[in-house]
Amino acid sequence: MRNDHTESPFNALPPIVVALAVVLVGIELVFQAGARGFGGADAVGWRIAAFNDYAFIPDLFERSLETGEWRLADALRLVSYVFLHQGFSHLAFVLVFLLAMGKYVGELFSPLAMLAVFTGSAIAGAMAYGLLLDDRIALIGGFPAVYGLIGAYTFVLWTGLGAMQKNPARAFTLIGFLMAFQLLFGLLFGGGNYWVAELAGFFAGFLLSFVVSPGGWGRVMDKVRQR
Q: Which of 123, 178, 212, 226 has a 20 to 30 Å separation from 148 between CA atoms?
């Protein structure tokens, strides 16, 4: 007889979600350890050094666009920035969306498809941040990538509601709520322009789902009906 009480809670999560969460938490743990003196005197500056080497920096992006020269290290910043956070509190909110949206999307999409949404949304978020804004502040954090998972989640709801002849616009309730909350928070407490990258990540995830979802609309709808 199977003992459900001893089953790991991670068994319920798609492996790709667990892998991404482990990488994100592992990187943050290294920074936290360095800040507390583990690893020598230079370890205190590991987070800042990583920001300098792997954050998305608009000036470097603009230089690459102007010169047409793309160094591998600069191109890597279009994705690597999502693995850097200001601290555990910043990372915690990213993990909430990753685990919640990743579980839902990961049960419908293949691991490669989900990774494509995560990575593609990160790239789209960085490019929108660099192209649409004249902002010198570096972009860090996993929100554009996990907002892409929200976009994929919205795609599934959108196709499901359409098939059931219900208003498909209801699928966009979550992103509408999140953007309204972020606007209110920004008005009350101030904030940067990261929302541009996050919104771009959402739409990238939604649009990519047309391509990477298993079998297109038909397969997605079959699985939605079975849930």
A: 226
